Structures are given as C-alpha cells and as structure tokens.
C-alpha cells in the first residue's frame, strides 16, 4: 500500500520511458484569481512522481501554497508530436536540494556546466524549494 503522497497509479512503461527523456516541461498552477499560470520547468521523473524545484518567492510556489495541485505537460515538439500531461497534488519534499539540482543540471547542461550551475544551490534551501507532483491522472498522447 502506498504511503502518504505516494502514487497508487500503474504507469505504462512507454509513459515512464517518455518521462525519462531530457525534456523541459510546462507546469500550470492556479493563481489567486483562479486563472491558470504556466511556466517552463526542469523535472526529474522518479518513483512515479515528477520532482522539481523553484524559488520560494516565485509565483508558481505561491500559487501552489494556496492550491497544491498542478498539471505538468511534457511534450515532444517535432513530428510525430507526442505528449504526456500529468495532473496531481504537489508536495514539498525533504531531500537534498543540491543533489536534486545537481542531477537535473547534469542532465540538462552536461557535466561541466551542470556541476557549475548546481554549485549555486548548495546553500539555498531557505530560498529554493524542492517539490514533487504525485499524479492522480495521466493523459497519454504518445500514439502516432
């Protein structure tokens, strides 16, 4: 049985493989006026959830604090166009911010630039938050 926040969803292998690619996602949150707000974001798919980070002062984090649900669109923008949309609850995570950022930065920037980028996050846990989106629904648009 899954613990609090753990996904009980069975995720298809094709979806897992798609989400393991190095793609920039787009996260949508709901603002104070009830309108959707979207922003590009790095993510790391692990154990059935999307892990991300953002500044605690960012609009997306303030929106999440008011309404802890979001949608994450991960798409391939060349033919054949494919996408996955993950909807679910957002949870702050207790894990090393530096290790999370380092893993993503190495993936998105490569070894040298990624390590340099992550250095800026070593002592930023007061200013930057690590969080995950635990899916309750996944829309699969991988069929060609």
From TrEMBL:
A GO molecular-function descriptor: oxidoreductase activity, acting on the CH-CH group of donors
Task: Keywords in alphabetical order, please.
Answer: Oxidoreductase
Under the heading SUPFAM superfamilies, the entry gives: FMN-binding split barrel (SSF50475)
Give the GO cellular component terms, alphabetically. cytosol
Q: Which residues form the Pyridoxamine 5'-phosphate oxidase N-terminal domain?
A: 11-134
Q: Which PANTHER family match?
A: HEME OXYGENASE HI_0854-RELATED
Q: From the Swiss-Prot or TrEMBL record, give the protein name.
A: Pyridoxamine 5'-phosphate oxidase N-terminal domain-containing protein
């Amino acid at each position: 049985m899954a613990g609090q926040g753990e996904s009980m969803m069975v995720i298809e292998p094709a979806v897992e493989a798609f989400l393991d690619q190095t793609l920039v996602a787009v996260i949508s949150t709901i603002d104070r006026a009830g309108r959707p707000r979207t922003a590009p974001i790095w993510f790391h798919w692990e154990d059935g959830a999307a892990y991300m980070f953002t500044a605690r002062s960012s609009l997306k984090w303030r929106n999440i604090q008011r309404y802890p649900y979001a949608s994450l669109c991960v798409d391939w923008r060349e033919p054949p166009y494919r996408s996955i949309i993950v909807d679910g609850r957002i949870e702050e995570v207790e894990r090393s911010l530096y290790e999370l950022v380092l893993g993503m930065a190495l993936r998105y920037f490569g070894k040298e630039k990624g390590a340099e980028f992550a250095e800026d996050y070593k002592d930023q846990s007061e200013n930057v938050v690590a969080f995950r989106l635990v899916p309750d629904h996944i829309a699969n648009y991988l069929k060609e």
